Amino acid sequence: MSDCKDVQLNIKVGEIIMIKKFFNTFLFAIAFAISTGLVILVYSVMQGPPEYSLDENTVIYGQNGEVVSVERGVQNRFWVELDDISPHLIDAFISAEDAHFYDHFGFDLKRIAGAVYHNILAFDKVQGASTITQQYARNIYLTHQKSWERKIHEALIALRLEIFQDKEEILEGYLNTIYFGHGQYGVQAASRFYFDKDADELALEEAALLTAIPKGPSVYSPLISYENAINRQEWILERMNETNKISEAAMNQAKRVDLRIAVTASEQQPEVGQYFTDFAMNQAADILGIDRQKLDGKGYQVHTTLNHQAQEKLEQTVQEQMPSDSELQIGAVTIEPRTGKIVALQGGRSFDESPFNRVTQAERMTGSTFKPFLYYAALVYGFTPSTTLDSRPTTFSLENGEIYSPSNYSDTYANRPVTLAQAVAVSDNIYAIKTNQYIGPENLVQAADAFGLDAELPPVLSLALGTASVSVLEMAEAYSVLANQGWSVNPYVIEKIVDRDGNIVYQHQAETPQRRLEENHAFVLTHLLTGMFDSRMNDYMYVTGASIAQRLTHQYAGKSGTTPNDSWMIGFSPHYTTAIWTGFDDNREIERIQENRAAKEIWATYMERLHENIPLQTFQVPTGVIGLQVDPFSGKLEGPACEEKTRLTYYIKGTEPKEVCGK
């Protein structure tokens, strides 16, 4: 009996010891869990808010605020604030992905327990328990590789997100980082891609469909399987009803809507201003001091000087007027002289076929478009529109002993004295070379510098005929100085740059204009350049703008130029300067008439389209000049012998002619 009692006592003592051990282990486990939790919490606090950098589209805007282009990095993403997202979309994601989002601290313990239970029963991972916070952590910091290491990192980052961000910030970040398939990241990019609308415009049925996709874009994208997408959309609508986000009537109504997928119409349309956009992005990268490729995905807003209508008109005209059966290329640019804004730019026939920008990257011989610089120097030197020089075949002896024998177009000469006014209008080469010889080639180089040409130019006689190579943009700038009444012009394309946080990181500051050309001389030259469109100047040669003059309804000043390999037309109104160059990339000769005429035809058609809604305006006449009716052939004042041939001509006061025709 005693032995039995001893055994019972030993059993009870053993039970007490085991209970004590279990209790101690339990207390230790609790203490360990609490201490581990405290360590993790302290560690998370000490680590601070997680830092991250996401690719976000850089958007280029025109001068009126319209979107010109969207430059993408690795991902197509537009970040939008929570207020700019449809409430239906927010409710759909919370119902489908994390119904207790506002109640937990990053982890839904009840949901985790349920997922573990069902996974054990199924001997497989049939349920997930990731909260929106955990998914957000995974989207921006981690890969989707399934490993314990990744899970631990995800949990730590999710905890830091919950500590340092409020629920709205987490939800906003989550909705902007989800992948929707087909390269689209975030709800804004997905809304535009699938429905061609912004995220705040989505209807209930559209929101539910978008919410269905991230579960598995390769399975639930409506472009891959419309049936799968709709099945999951209906499940999401039911979840929204279960979580009291929508009524049963709203659910049933949404299920009945036959959705049409748009796949962003803008994605299917050719982009306007690709050469301009590329140039602007390169300029922006230089301004910010970052790599051009990095700029694409940094989420900047780049506001430019592009006039969308002007660019469209330029591209339309180029497409219509360039010979379709030719490899002829083009460089064209339009500048607003008063401000320096580059409002349109076309660097070639097709950016997709050749992104080389012939406006900014190529330098070509300018031909007779260089002559205005010469004649400005001549006016300063004392020439007037009535100054005459002989136009006849002439041989010039150069300083090195060589002989130089320039010729006029088609070897046509007046074989008599011609006035400066007529020589400009018909582009007489002999007159130009004689003028350069008279004033000195060094003075021509200085005049070109005054117009803003920075190139190293040789002080030789042939420079008067445009034997130097200059870019289209530089020539447009030089003519814009003349159009701006002699004040400096600094062409630019970037108005301001705003970073992804809304901070203005660059704002264009207009430079104080500098007087580059004397006002009176600049105006006299400008009016001389209107002569190329005036048929009254036709004589031994036609005026160089004869083929387009009848189509022009505004006052323009300009100059054409040709070399065997290049064709130019540069001209301006009081509003815009446009320079057009055409030629072949391999520098072969232009032989066909249609190819030779392309630059003028494009310039005339485009400038008229550009000015069609602008009131007629003439060039402003300064007080230091006087306008008189003058015979352009003799340079004499209107008289009995030339009443029908005279043309209004301007002179600097004190230099006007005194002799009258017929006396």
UniProtKB/TrEMBL annotation:
The superkingdom of the source organism is Bacteria
The UniProt entry's GO CC annotations, sorted and at most eight, read:
outer membrane-bounded periplasmic space; plasma membrane
Q: Which residues cross the membrane?
A: 22-46
A GO BP term, please? proteolysis
* UniProt-listed Pfam families: Transgly, Transpeptidase
Q: Which InterPro entries match?
A: Beta-lactam/transpept-like, Glyco_trans_51, Glycosyltr_51/Transpeptidase, Lysozyme-like_dom_sf, PBP_transglycosylase, PCN-bd_Tpept
| Coiled-coil parts of chain | none
Keyword Membrane present in the record's keywords: the answer is: yes
- What are the residue boundaries of the Glycosyl transferase family domain, all occurrences included? 69-240
Predominantly, its location class is membrane
Location(s) in or outside the cell: Cell membrane
Q: Cite the Penicillin-binding protein transpeptidase domain residue spans from the record.
A: 331-574
Gene3D superfamilies this protein is in? Biosynthetic peptidoglycan transglycosylase-like, DD-peptidase/beta-lactamase superfamily
Task: Provide the reaction this enzyme catalyses.
Answer: [GlcNAc-(1->4)-Mur2Ac(oyl-L-Ala-gamma-D-Glu-L-Lys-D-Ala-D-Ala)](n)-di-trans,octa-cis-undecaprenyl diphosphate + beta-D-GlcNAc-(1->4)-Mur2Ac(oyl-L-Ala-gamma-D-Glu-L-Lys-D-Ala-D-Ala)-di-trans,octa-cis-undecaprenyl diphosphate = [GlcNAc-(1->4)-Mur2Ac(oyl-L-Ala-gamma-D-Glu-L-Lys-D-Ala-D-Ala)](n+1)-di-trans,octa-cis-undecaprenyl diphosphate + di-trans,octa-cis-undecaprenyl diphosphate + H(+); Preferential cleavage: (Ac)2-L-Lys-D-Ala-|-D-Ala. Also transpeptidation of peptidyl-alanyl moieties that are N-acyl substituents of D-alanine
Q: Which GO terms describe its molecular function?
A: penicillin binding; peptidoglycan glycosyltransferase activity; serine-type D-Ala-D-Ala carboxypeptidase activity
Q: Which UniProt keywords apply?
A: Carboxypeptidase, Cell membrane, Cell shape, Cell wall biogenesis/degradation, Glycosyltransferase, Hydrolase, Membrane, Multifunctional enzyme, Peptidoglycan synthesis, Protease, Transferase, Transmembrane, Transmembrane helix
As for family, the record states:
In the N-terminal section; belongs to the glycosyltransferase 51 family.
What name does UniProt use for this protein? Penicillin-binding protein
